[in-house]
Specification:
Structural class of chain A: alpha+beta
Order of helices and strands of chain A: EHHEEEEEHEHHEEEEEEE
Number of strands of chain A: 14
Number of helices of chain A: 5
Largest sheet of chain A: 7 strands, antiparallel
Strand content of chain A: 35-45%
Helix content of chain A: 10-25%
Oligomer: homodimer
Strand order of the largest sheet of chain A: 4-3-7-10-11-6-5
């Protein structure tokens, strides 16, 4: 077992540190965030920090570095109040990864990468038509993070577009059936294989597997 | 494609909503957080909200609901200033899930679930000896989230304990080799299979696969 100290981390080569620290927390969600600017330019960018924050109200957070790429996502959300979160499936990993490139503001990643814009009519932001699970988000709050000048953007779910057949009778979504991938580090795409679901855990009670 | 609106979500059965909204963001990290109280009681609880926030400084966040279970994790972190983040591997999913049960404050989940405490000597908090990747954390900041009364707890990496052979030459950790799992929803454990790594993306440049 190797021990890497805080001092070791601080003195690392920048790329080595980026790869190591980005992969040390475990697997991450793989989504593309779709936005539109007030003058109508659409934008699409990959994010691996989209995180469930609570179910009632249904809130989701993600971290953005406003002074860095992808610079358009944050300003578009602030301008319009809406954004979409679109799952990345196995067949789209190369195109989705390419959305991390620093395209100019007036270039739409949808067009550039070959994804199709889809609009629900309920919110302004564009969805990725090719995505199997799509979430429409309404901006709610933001929290500037002092320690590293990032911002936690918090939104509430406005609507979800999802194939009905992949939702279990208890509401759980079978992400295997949506072909959703997961990211580790900056650039490693994985396809999760289902192992088990377990029942609600109670002290002193034997844990049961959920097979529905 | 089914459209689920915000109004639908608000009127859902609570368990159905919990399952749906917990699984809609995609795959989540699977970690157990280890802490010790000021009077020496150790605690271990599963979290799926551990998120990479930045590499320099190396900061990690997670969301906790201080008024809810797991109640001890948050108060122990505030009392001692330290905690550990321990990857859940495939062989430990049942025991790790059981750590979500509401054990009394004076009961150590380590002992109750059969995990061994391990101490590095550098930080106060206990590591899970059986975990393949272990991160020692120093508490830095917290952000109370208005919309749902959760708290974002932010810490800086104090040390990482990891098998040296699973780190690539560029710093990327091969999480397949650590047998780390991912969670979807409240209770579904998955084992990711590696697909591809891609090089740094640039506009107009063909995307290359990383094979190292």
């Amino acid at each position: 077992m190797k021990v890497i100290t805080n001092k070791n981390i601080k003195s690392m080569d920048k790329i080595y540190r980026l790869n190591l620290i980005n992969s040390v927390t475990g697997f991450k969600s793989a989504n593309m965030i779709g936005t539109v600017s007030s003058d109508g330019n659409t934008n699409l960018a990959i994010f691996s920090s989209v995180t469930h924050m609570g179910s009632d109200p249904a809130v989701i957070g993600f971290f953005v570095r406003p002074t860095h790429v992808p610079r358009n996502t944050y300003s578009n959300i602030k301008d319009t109040g809406y954004y979409t979160i679109n799952h990345i499936s196995k067949s789209h990993i190369a195109k989705a990864h390419q959305s991390s490139a620093k395209y100019d503001e007036d270039i739409s990643e949808f067009e550039e990468l070959g994804f199709s814009e889809e609009y629900s009519g309920n919110i302004k932001a564009p969805y990725v038509a090719e995505s199997n699970i799509k979430i429409g988000m309404k901006y709610k709050e933001e929290y500037p993070i002092k320690v590293n000048n990032t911002v936690l953007v918090v939104g509430e779910i406005a609507e979800i577009m999802i194939p009905e057949e992949i939702i279990s009778e208890d509401g759980h979504i079978n992400l295997n059936q949506s072909d959703t991938v997961t990211i580790s580090g900056l650039d490693a795409y994985h396809k999760p294989e289902f192992l088990k679901r377990f029942d609600y855990a109670r002290p002193g009670k034997e844990l049961n597997e959920i097979t529905r």
